[in-house]
TrEMBL record, chains A, B:
This is LLM class flavin-dependent oxidoreductase. Signal peptide: none annotated. Keywords: Flavoprotein, FMN, Monooxygenase, Oxidoreductase. Residues 423-453 are annotated as: Disordered. It comes from the Bacteria. It comes from Nocardia callitridis. PANTHER family: ALKANESULFONATE MONOOXYGENASE-RELATED, C2H2 FINGER DOMAIN TRANSCRIPTION FACTOR (EUROFUNG)-RELATED. NCBIfam families: FMN_nitrolo (TIGR03860).
Amino acid sequence: MSAPLRFSAFVMNTTSHILHGAWRLPEAQQTRFNSLDHWVELAKTLERGKFDYIFFADVVGLYDDYQGSWRKFVESGLQIPSNDPTVLASALAYNTEHLGIVLTNSILQSHPFDFARKISTLDHASNGRIGWNIVTSLSGNAWRNFGFDEITAHDERYRWADEYVDVVYKLWEGSWDDGALIQDKASGLHGDFDKVHKINHDGKRYRVEGPHLVAPSPQRTPVLFQAGSSAAGRRFAARNAEGQFIVSPNPAAAKALIDDTRRLVAENGRAPEDLQFFQGLSFVIGSTEEEAKRKAAELDEVLDPNTIIAHAAGGLGHDLGHYDLDTPIGDIETEGTRSTLAWLHEAVPDREPTVRDLARLRSHHGRIVGTPEQIADRLAVWRDAGIDGVNVTNATIPGSFTEFIDHVLPVLRDRGLARTEYAEGTARRKATGRDLLPDSHPAATYRGAFTDS
Amino acid sequence: MSAPLRFSAFVMNTTSHILHGAWRLPEAQQTRFNSLDHWVELAKTLERGKFDYIFFADVVGLYDDYQGSWRKFVESGLQIPSNDPTVLASALAYNTEHLGIVLTNSILQSHPFDFARKISTLDHASNGRIGWNIVTSLSGNAWRNFGFDEITAHDERYRWADEYVDVVYKLWEGSWDDGALIQDKASGLHGDFDKVHKINHDGKRYRVEGPHLVAPSPQRTPVLFQAGSSAAGRRFAARNAEGQFIVSPNPAAAKALIDDTRRLVAENGRAPEDLQFFQGLSFVIGSTEEEAKRKAAELDEVLDPNTIIAHAAGGLGHDLGHYDLDTPIGDIETEGTRSTLAWLHEAVPDREPTVRDLARLRSHHGRIVGTPEQIADRLAVWRDAGIDGVNVTNATIPGSFTEFIDHVLPVLRDRGLARTEYAEGTARRKATGRDLLPDSHPAATYRGAFTDS
């Protein structure tokens, strides 16, 4: 329980990712997302702070309409434009040595044969520092961008994801044996044919012959992340993920979720600690408590409740844009939104919560305001609840990260809450001491499974 | 006719691209293809030489079996492993300022919505230096990697390509009007909703709602290349391409092909010069003719005729591996191979050509051996035949390029056959004086075509 926390920078290749409106702050530079310099500078900053990961969220479509339209998304920069993160990774890898690069990629957006090849190429290019955040897309527009009439049902999406990861595991772990790449100039033998295998996958959605076109990269399979909190999502994470991104309302809730999920991990035959939990938190930092509170008030000043609601509604399947911000949530609840909004009643127990309360909670949720010492006190409580790391949500880029690095991390290091140096090696080795997935992981079953070439 | 030639470095993210066996030369470093440093160093070298493009060929599957198996490909490193080129581009862009980066991407491998987004992201990241070599995949294994039983018929592939480019043109040219991205911190207005449009593409293979998720990049549509020489391929190039990669056996044949294709370009309502031709050539350079000839002999020593035949057979649809190298071609010809092998009879008119002649011709084809001055003489003849540029095929990386840059380009510059400086601006501006496609290009028809948001 006394291991240092790990730190991940939660970003998206867009202007307005989560704390909508914060891009208007004078110091905010996230409007520069089109610039490669912007991202390379951030990666170098994070490596200076010895962050473990830069974690790119992503979407491949708009959220569901708000006030009957997608106008709000364009006008407020709510994840549109949103650029592809994967194609930035090699520039970030070239300019850093240790930083892990976690890329979100939906099973919807790319064929597993092509995706596996891109990731393997990047894992070589980065000397083994690539992670993959496995997602199934949530918005109808995303599905309609890829030829579907509507969102594939939730459980069916996870069956699809099961097959998708099966294909890429076969390519990454089973298609090439160790030692297959020879490159001997004297004999002219470049590869050992008996160590390279077609996978001949034949499933419900995919048929893939193989072989994988890329020789084994340092990690073979990238470090696997997942964020789903539904039953199917947690089952998937328990089987596959090495890192889970959680947004628990408080340390006690995190502890319950972690304990419960780790039981599922064990039921899958994996070691419970093979799944690490990263809690999403944002920080408002002051040299005094008063300064921190003043900065938090300044942030609240620019945060836009309507945009925050538009984003939240995207996950509810109900257009909250038709209601005034002061509408009681009780007047809105439908069968589809009831369970999702239950936590709002918990958070505002003393009166009937409103739409505005939802916006406030979404933006304050996971926010820690205080001096570096106060923040360290709070992070110690989170660590004791069992989280392995923090996914640092930003209000401004690079400000949220530079302030955290310059003011909070030194205090955390003094208290043993943060590492003082990077470990050597691949992203997985830094996290677990191993370059490759352990034998208990389902991907490992494909090692040596394809003996005919 | 007296414009300087343009130069492109023809490479692939693999060990053995075209001159199979050359990787065994002591100075050859192409076995380092897994290394990002290798590619960044090459890009910097090419920029030092003021090359216009680094042109990445690519495949997404093995060639057809040779001697009844794919053993030969693995053993000789014939385009396996082959890594993805697209994900390298941002590192190359970050480390250069002028070099154009041309990426081959098959219509088979990625969905046009995802592909368009990756390319737009890279065109932003490179300040407008991305090109796309449009291909339809040729090997059965590639199709079986993507779920098909067999190769889609040739003409149907081009109909598919027609729809594919239609989708990406709509996203690149029609989805966002100029001035849609506002990013005004004072007002909080990030984008002009009335200038962003869904495309609602509904075609035979794709349905794509849109909008494009990326705001217009410097070139919007990347510089478009094509290499097909079939009737359907030439029709496609005449309609769409801005650069065509050709491998003509001699300047006269190039002139005939260029004149004929430019007629087709004009028939499509485009200016004939809007399609530029890059001839594939390789160079063996000596300070004396004798030294050049000796180096050519050393190269021939390591070139492997069987691997070259295995590669050639991949385009013939007939397994030439079942024949001895001295088998007369006349004993092999089938309906499928006859037309393709006709040029071999032309090239070896005095006797019955053999399989070995095919290998020799494939590796000598487009090879110029001599002193820098002799090479310049030959390039002047090629230029007078109407080519706009040379796609420099390598025997070794980086040697083939450093020798060309250090010894041949200075002579070419003295004679006005090569530029002395880069022009400013995007890749398209360097090539044509414009950042965007001209109005006569079919992609331009989608500008302003989607007026409802």
